[in-house]
Amino acid sequence: MSSHRHRVTPLRALKGLVLLGFAVFCVVPLVWLLLAPTKTDAELVSGATMSFGSFDQLAAAARHLMDYNDGVLVQWAWNSVLYAVGSLVLSVGSSVLAGYALAVTHLPGRRLLLVLTLVGMLVPPTALVLPLFLEINAVQLTNTALSVILPAAFYPFGTYLAFIYFSTSMPVELLEAGRLDGLSEAGLFWHVARPLATPLMGLLAFFSFVANWNNYFLPYVMLSEEAKYNLPVGLGAVISGTPALNPANGGSFLPITRPEVALAGLIIVLPIAVVFVFCQRYLVRGILSGATKG
Amino acid sequence: MSSRRRGTWTGLLFVLPYIVLLVAFGLGPAAYAVYTSFVVSAPTGDALGLDNYAATLGDFRFWPAAANVALFLAIWLPIMVVGVLALALLLHDRPSRFSGVMRLVYFLPGAVTGSAGILLWYCMLEPSISPFGPALRAMGFERGSDVFADSNLVLIFAGIAFITGAGQWIVIMYGAMQNIPEDVLEAAALDGAGPIRTAIFVKLPLVSKYVLYMVILSLAAGLQLFVEPQLIYGITKTAGSPWWSLNQFGYALAFQTGNFGGAATISLILLVLSCVAAMLFITRTDFFSTEVDR
């Protein structure tokens, strides 16, 4: 049996080759992104593509990036945190409360609300960005933090996940016992349901944070002032507004070249990627639990 | 009875924040876009009723943009279905530590999305700095402008979307295959089915609804294509245009010519397509449920 396991047949070799081949396409670009900020722009072109430059060069790239427009990058990072955390608090709070109520009480219009939630879950948020701009513009809130935070607080995915979670893993007996102990309905949620839902809230918080941290289209459309950008929109402005990535489009007096831009990309990606690697299992379970029947 | 009524009132209070968000940032913008599309005139004349629709559909930029998006979907969706299923089946054929590592590796590119993703993949496709430079040159691409030619854009966007999106779906399909009962697979083996026949006739039918889920979500997301063509045009100034995709066209209408009515019509066309796909999926499959058996 074990000799069978280790026999290398042409078919098995081909299979391994396909799997490893795709892995190369996944890993090489990420390693390149890690290495790029350690080199000068000239070294990126002339040197070995997958080599390490020097820490001095990395520090220089960081300095150039910090000097860009009087340190606007720090402002963008701060905005990113503010927008993502603001939306996170509102979205997780509202969706956990709603999911709980939909699961344990008999509300009028409950089915309609759930169907609307499902539609909201399947329609990508980008589909509503231009209509949202028209609406927010009509109430004159564009170019404010609220114009980015509030629309992203609508979180149908979270509400549906919370509904499924409370429906399937919240013992009815616990609620009954709580009622007998004289807890109010709000007290039941706070003292019985909320502690049980801690893993759910962690999952929803992560999903919400990642989506909003990476959000491009909504802030791009809502925000007109550079100082209000988040990191992805700021990076987008740098790579499409300067010849940094495409020196063929003319020279620049700015020391913002490809290593600096790569470093900016890393700053956006690293916080997410680290959590991504550690939470992969939970993330997948979260996506899967959208379906009630495995 | 009185406790149930009390529960209903508290329940309503609990869903209220979510309903407010749903109305303000889900239904509201959609309704306002309908209003805008019928009532708000283009700055050039008095467009009312269906005039905005006629003007948008008759615009020289509309059909090329629609064709670009349709071609992108026609290439990307089959690649997703075949690629994701093939890789997941190969990984599931013989679960091992190797297959676990591969699943994590395939997941990683998904962390680099939006503007950071475009930055990364632009560099990967620029022969002078890309680690894949020799391969690109072997295929006849000497300079970045050879790669970023109009005729290649659809393929480039489909490739990027596949590499960044495949990982999470591979993990999901793999998870779904793990749920296939052991005795079903044993019965197939007893019947003399080899790994390939088992994959095609046993595993595939059992994960088909996850494939449908992936297709619906990908279709809805792909219709909204915006960041990729917008930034690639911004970087190269030659590949694509500011109205290469439908969402770009809508954005250009709103922000270059102040034609909000026209922008609203584009958004609504995309929104209706997404909603129809979502409703079909919700009503024709048992993937989601609004009633959960306790």
UniProtKB/TrEMBL annotation, chain A:
Residues 77-279 form the ABC transmembrane type-1 domain. It is found in: Cell membrane. One of its GO terms (biological process) is transmembrane transport. The keyword Transport applies. It comes from the Bacteria. This is Carbohydrate ABC transporter membrane protein 2 (CUT1 family). Keywords: Cell membrane, Membrane, Transmembrane, Transmembrane helix, Transport. The chain crosses the membrane at residues 12-35, 76-100, 112-134, 146-167, 188-211, 261-284. Coiled coil: none annotated. GO terms for cellular component: plasma membrane. Belongs to the binding-protein-dependent transport system permease family. It is a multi-pass membrane protein. The keyword Transmembrane applies. InterPro entries: MetI-like (IPR000515), MetI-like_sf (IPR035906).
From TrEMBL, chain B:
It is a multi-pass membrane protein. One of its GO terms (cellular component) is plasma membrane. SUPFAM superfamilies: MetI-like (SSF161098). Gene3D superfamilies: MetI-like. Keywords: Cell membrane, Membrane, Sugar transport, Transmembrane, Transmembrane helix, Transport. It is found in: Cell membrane. It comes from the Bacteria. It holds the Pfam family BPD_transp_1. Residues 65-281 form the ABC transmembrane type-1 domain. GO terms for biological process: transmembrane transport. The keyword Transmembrane helix applies. The chain crosses the membrane at residues 12-35, 69-92, 104-122, 153-172, 210-227, 260-282. Belongs to the binding-protein-dependent transport system permease family. This is Multiple sugar transport system permease protein.
